[in-house]
């Protein structure tokens, strides 16, 4: 019976859950990860539509945990610059890695490539069970009893919900995570560009929503797009014949990379924002999208999620080293204090930015134009945004600090 009792069970093997498991390797704790998906495989061929811009802080964590060397070099692109401009005016800001003495401003990766590398790092050392769904949770004297789809049960002292935006762990714990429609839908896909992307991430703010052209690695050096717009417009764009879509996309990008052409399928889905009413419950904690879903316009969602994972792991290791119970309310409260305020602030800032760029009133348009120009011309302000984009701000776990 004893072999069924775990110190930590992580439900969800996305980037947040996988990083948490990697951070607990060699801790002496009995840790298990459960995921509903089949074994993660490194992607090959065309770039997959789900990509993320990782910050310096996230890449530092992946390096320190021995995960980054497992990522194929052609599936991870360090980008040196970022160009943000207002599609309806003259405001433009350019950021460069050299402004901050950084190796890169960020790293573009396919989500599947990171998960496959985490799996490769973690699975040989602790159980990462694939194709395993949680179907029930019951309180247990030690923590939680988990029932899996095949009827097997296990007991854990601490349950970590890393099961994404539609977290069933969050729901079963009775923690509210009411979705808030952002008013945007996203059209995503991989594109070929006439002009080389030059390892620059570009974002044009259009009244209907931002269009991001994200540089990817590989021989063809394609870009990934995230085009946020209204529901009706997204559905229209997704249904356009390929030639018409390419034309609309090239126009929306103001030809910054010449003619653009979609490669492979286009994804189209609503952008929903959420924030869990609490990150912790009795013997339980939430990390990543299970705790918060932010608008993708600032490319910060999984970066916040990986910091949640590292901070929670740090607090657990701290408690363990002092002989304290892993899931004591004090330990879990420290985790929540360190992450929730920061994540809420980030979510509100992205929301404010989105709102500002949607406003039709002339004074607000002027303000955002002046704002972008002001940032461009004021080195300290620019420095502030670069530090933010690199993930150097906030209460960082030791794993992410320089
Ligand atoms: C268009 C778009 C662009 C984005 N761009 C960026 C970006 O540039 N930078 C950035 O930082 N973020 C970005 N994000 C956000 C980022 O993709 C998410 O924050 C991130 O993928 C969430 O990771 P996660 O590990 O928390 O959850 P997920 O990736 O959703 O993983 C959850 C895991 O839980 C498993 N699971 C679910 N239910 C169960 C169950 N009952 N039992 C067992 N397992 C279960 C699933 O199989 C899955 O593996 C973007 C998001 C979107 C929509």
TrEMBL record:
Keywords: FAD, Flavoprotein, Monooxygenase, Oxidoreductase. Its cofactor is FAD. Pathway: Cofactor biosynthesis; ubiquinone biosynthesis. Pfam families: FAD_binding_3. Residues 7-340 form the FAD-binding domain. Transmembrane segments: none annotated. It comes from the Bacteria. GO terms for molecular function: monooxygenase activity. InterPro entries: FAD-bd (IPR002938), FAD/NAD-bd_sf (IPR036188), Ubi_Hdrlase_CS (IPR018168), UbiH/COQ6 (IPR010971), UbiH/COQ6_monooxygenase (IPR051205). Belongs to the UbiH/COQ6 family. This is FAD-dependent monooxygenase. It comes from Isoalcanivorax beigongshangi. The lineage of its organism: Bacteria, Pseudomonadati, Pseudomonadota, Gammaproteobacteria, Oceanospirillales.
């Amino acid at each position: 019976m004893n072999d069924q009792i775990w110190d930590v069970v992580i439900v969800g093997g996305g980037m947040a859950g996988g990083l948490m498991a990697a951070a607990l390797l060699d801790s002496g704790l009995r840790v298990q990860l459960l995921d509903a998906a089949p074994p993660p495989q490194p992607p090959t061929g065309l770039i997959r539509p789900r990509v993320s811009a990782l910050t310096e802080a996230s890449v530092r964590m992946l390096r320190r945990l021995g995960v980054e060397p497992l990522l194929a070099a052609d599936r991870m692109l360090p980008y040196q610059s970022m160009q943000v401009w207002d599609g309806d005016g003259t405001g433009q800001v350019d950021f460069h890695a050299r402004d901050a003495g950084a190796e890169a401003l960020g790293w573009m990766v396919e989500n599947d490539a990171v998960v496959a590398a985490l799996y490769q790092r973690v699975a040989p050392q602790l159980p990462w069970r694939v194709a395993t769904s949680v179907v029930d949770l019951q309180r247990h004297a030690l923590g939680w009893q988990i029932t899996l789809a095949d009827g097997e049960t296990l007991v854990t002292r601490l349950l970590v919900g890393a099961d994404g935006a539609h977290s069933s762990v969050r729901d079963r714990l009775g923690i509210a995570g009411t979705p808030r429609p952002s008013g945007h839908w996203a059209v995503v896909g991989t594109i070929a560009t006439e002009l080389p992307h030059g390892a620059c991430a570009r974002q044009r703010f259009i009244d209907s929503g931002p269009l991001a052209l994200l540089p990817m690695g590989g021989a063809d050096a394609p870009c990934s797009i995230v085009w946020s717009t209204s529901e009706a417009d997204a559905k229209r764009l997704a249904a356009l014949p390929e030639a018409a879509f390419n034309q609309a996309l090239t126009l929306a990008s103001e030809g910054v990379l010449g003619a653009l052409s979609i490669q492979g399928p286009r994804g189209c889905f609503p952008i929903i924002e959420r924030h869990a009413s609490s990150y912790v419950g009795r013997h339980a904690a939430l990390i990543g999208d299970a705790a918060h879903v932010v608008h993708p316009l600032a490319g910060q969602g999984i970066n916040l999620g990986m910091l949640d994972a590292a901070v929670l792991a740090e607090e657990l290791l701290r408690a363990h080293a002092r002989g304290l119970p892993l899931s004591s309310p004090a330990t879990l409260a420290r985790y929540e204090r360190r992450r929730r305020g920061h994540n809420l602030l980030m979510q509100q800032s992205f929301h404010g930015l989105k709102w500002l760029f949607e406003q039709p009133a002339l004074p607000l348009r002027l303000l955002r134009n002046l704002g972008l120009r002001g940032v461009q011309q004021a080195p300290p302000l620019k420095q502030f945004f670069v530090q933010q984009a690199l993930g150097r701000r906030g209460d960082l776990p030791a794993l992410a600090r320089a």
